[in-house]
Design a protein that fits this description.
globular; single chain; Ribosomal Protein S8, Chain: A, domain 1; 7-stranded mixed beta sheet; 39% helix; 12 strands
Length: 339
């Protein structure tokens, strides 16, 4: 393993994206998102994805020449056509718009259609924190999970992220897929020739497997069985159907080069001050955190973490020490500049 500085990783991303024609301002947005994922330890959504982004641009599946269009909007909502641009560029615009409208209306919801893979959902929900707002972000994704009781993939991992300010240095940041694990982690295991833990996925016949290749051909296991499957369905409705975009097996994987992804998102921003005085809100949240942290530990546990706390600590360490990469992975990423 080697350690790569944040600045070096960011420069590689920007230069690689510019090499295929991306505008510098948009390349920086994509790079910031990918690097943030690696900083927080979510490597499956980090710079690991860059080669596929570049290939999709080269094939015209990520559109770098059009502009995002707001189809409809009102004081507390907007409907955005992403025009197949980088998911990070569309997602940033959508969350910024939700925050702007939410400050005036108290709460705002923005839907996005015709977008692409947008990285980690918490990247956008956390935008709300510096405004003392609550951010909620959802996205559908290419089919990788079968409905509960079926063996045919129909829904994506369909992530959900909620970011809540606490008035302290550590916010509450939930970021979770509706599957036991993100599909990217299985793809990384397949690339490395490693097995995956039991319970992560099933093969195409619906049988449990530890073979990542069989898992990619089969289906990811939903969290909490039927409950995770149900949540994936609801998120697909709130993202794909509500936006007027694609849903279910109409969404394409970023590895499927036969057409645009068509990913859809929903961003929500809630202005806390419109509902309750901010000081009272943070006081009560801090009291809740105190109760959580002060709980008696269960056997085998040495500490109780808030949602997102591990990622915050990982980010702090990697900002000073660097981001770990296998030497071959880092060499492969650098070869992108010579492609």
């Amino acid at each position: 393993m080697i350690l790569v500085s944040v600045d070096e990783l960011r420069r590689l991303c920007v230069r690689s994206l510019e090499s295929v024609g991306a505008r510098t301002d948009e390349a920086k947005i994509v790079a910031e998102n990918l690097v943030k994922a690696d900083l927080r330890g979510t490597n499956s959504h980090g710079v690991f994805r860059l080669p596929e982004y570049l290939e999709r641009v080269k094939r015209g599946l990520i559109n770098i020449s059009t502009e995002i269009e707001i189809i409809r909007e009102g004081p507390s909502f907007a409907v955005i056509d992403g025009k197949a641009k980088f998911g990070q560029v569309v997602g940033t615009r959508a969350m910024d718009l939700a925050i702007s409208k939410g400050k005036k209306a108290g709460l705002a919801l923005v839907t996005v259609s015709k977008s692409n893979h947008f990285g980690i959902a918490s990247y956008y929900s956390m935008f709300a924190l510096k405004h003392m707002m609550i951010g909620i972000v959802m996205s559908n994704a290419a089919p990788s999970m079968a409905p509960w009781g079926a063996k045919e993939k129909l829904f994506g991992t369909n992530p959900l992220s909620v970011a809540i300010p606490t008035g302290g240095p550590i916010p509450i940041v939930l970021d979770m897929a509706m599957s036991q694990v993100a599909r990217g982690k299985i793809r990384m295991a397949a690339d490395k020739g490693e097995r995956i833990p039991e319970g992560w996925a099933v093969d195409k016949e619906g049988r449990a497997t530890t073979d990542p290749v069989a898992a990619l051909e089969g289906s990811l296991a939903p969290i909490a069985g039927a409950k995770g499957s149900g949540l994936a369905i609801v998120i697909d409705v709130l993202c794909g159907v509500l936006s007027g975009g694609t849903y279910g097996n109409g969404v394409k994987s970023m590895y499927d080069m036969t057409g645009p992804c068509g990913t859809c998102n929903t961003m929500i921003a809630i202005d806390i001050s419109k509902f309750i005085p901010v000081d009272r809100f943070t006081e009560q949240v801090k009291a809740m955190i105190g109760a959580i942290k002060g709980s008696s530990l269960a056997s085998g546990f040495s500490r109780i973490f808030l949602p997102g706390e591990i990622e915050i600590e990982t980010e702090r360490n990697r900002l000073t020490q660097g981001i770990p990469f296998e030497e071959e992975t880092w060499a492969r990423l650098n070869r992108l500049l010579d492609a």
